[in-house]
Target: Two-component system response regulator
Amino acid sequence: MTKHVLIIDDSLTETRIFKVLLEKNGFEVSVACNGQEGIDVARATQPDLILMDVVMPLLNGFQATRELTKNQITAHIPIIVCSSKSARTDRLWALKQGAKEYLVKPVKVRELLEVISRLLAEGNQYEQSL
Model:
């Protein structure tokens, strides 16, 4: 079954790079250009995983991550924050908001695919235990 990834990022360039990479690796991809739209799309489509930028209009990635992980409709969706913000405090804050991983842009392709694969496998194990 094809896995669905939602990219939430206001950079058209970053979004295109992630979208092409993910589609080339067999994923279905949806896109949202800010945190609020991302929340709406996540609720409607129930993706298997979310790639979240931090610096965006309306709601930033930290705010959107917190809202998604606190809402029972979307709390099960693993979030990988992908940001150019490389400070340790940004990483810790993202994880505190509920993100499962934090990767610094430019993200290495192999690392991203490995993290996605691991988080999806963990999600499958959780679903099978229910």
User: Anything to note?
Assistant: The two ends are 19 Å apart (CA to CA). The beta strands are 4-8, 28-32, 49-52, 79-83, 101-104. The chain has a mean pLDDT of 94. The longest strand covers residues 4-8.
